[in-house]
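Board notes, transcribed. Complex of a protein with iron/sulfur cluster.
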Amino acid sequence: MSLPRFKLLRPRSVAEAVEHLVNHAGSVRVLAGGTDMIPSMRQKLFEPEYVVDLRGVTALREVKLQADGSVEIGALTTIRTIERSDFLREHYPVLAEAAGTVASPVLRNMGTIGGNICLDTRCLWYNQSLTWRKGCGFCIKKDGDLCHVAPGGTKCWAAFSGDTPPALLCLKAEIEIAGPHGTRRVPLSDFYTGLGDNYRKLQASELVTRVFLPASSKDYRGVYRKLRVRGSIDYPLAGVAVVLKRSNGHVSDARIGITAVNPAPLLVKGASELLSGRAVDEALAEAAGDLAAKISKPLTTSALTPEYRREMIRVFTKRAVLAAAQVNGN
Ligand SMILES: Cc1cc2nc3c(=O)[nH]c(=O)nc-3n(C[C@H](O)[C@H](O)[C@H](O)COP(=O)(O)OP(=O)(O)OC[C@H]3O[C@@H](n4cnc5c(N)ncnc54)[C@H](O)[C@@H]3O)c2cc1C
Ligand code: SF4
């Protein structure tokens, strides 16, 4: 599968990158590590006339501690850097762990946190070659007007399948978005639309530039659990991040984030109310699993059945809550 023809633009600053996006609105796409974007271009899922290669914007490659104790991570920081950062492993271990499960070592060396947050949603009927899609019939997400997964519907249910966003949601991360009118900072939880096709709230002239982790999330310890076909490389088909804050032998706050079972990564509502003030045991962990499974709505967007993926959210959440309690010394 050859790449479509495009013109490569190589900005050295965020301002220059935004200028390119404005000048070529409608026919331009941002490239970071390219680990998802290039295969998608080969499959003719994206055929932009211009590609803005961000790799020369070196200011976006750092993990920086801020004066208020929070952490700033440049959008071009590689997944490998996050996985290996001693600082993040010590203070935000759930993020480092989730990063360590992304794809394979080679892809983690190239892939970036910004690309992981902005990752396109995935579906069995979409992530295929042009010939395959032509043969089976195009769908709402690209070139068609029907959905093979939910026939008769008008909505796309492709699943958001990034590993770091559920961990970032648990850490109450915010992201910085740069555009022609300057920068704005938004909670990551407000970034996704919940739609499989138009999945993120980002204008064509904007890009994600930074991720911020609040100092207050440093006290939260947790784990990430993931279902995938091949443990060495594959995208998640269900993923769960759990973090707990503990005081006096009890959980004083809890957050659970899930991925790959909805068109957006989600925080599980009610997790804190359920777990706070109690010692974690099997029954409590199981109740947390039920809560997470309730908001998981996978459809037949992958080779594994929706029922199995939903059940694995329940099982992984239970296991992750028990493991997080152990990490926290409960
Ligand atoms: C075989 C294989 C296995 C994979 N397995 C996993 C996995 O297990 N888990 C997982 O999470 N991912 C997986 N991936 C996907 C990918 O490698 C990672 O998600 C990676 O972090 C993407 O980052 P990138 O920098 O390479 O993004 P790119 O491929 O460069 O970009 C991805 C998308 O984000 C947009 N984008 C990138 N950066 C920005 C920005 N700063 N602002 C706005 N838009 C931006 C691009 O336009 C594109 O649409 C896999 C990929 C492959 C090929
Ligand atoms: S969920 Fe439906 S519309 Fe969306 S990519 Fe899959 S088949 Fe296409």
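The chain has twelve helices and twelve strands. Residues 29-37, 39, 75, 79, 102-103, 107, 110-112, 114-116, 118-120, 162-163, 207-208, 233-236 surround flavin-adenine dinucleotide (ligand 1) (CB under 6 Å).
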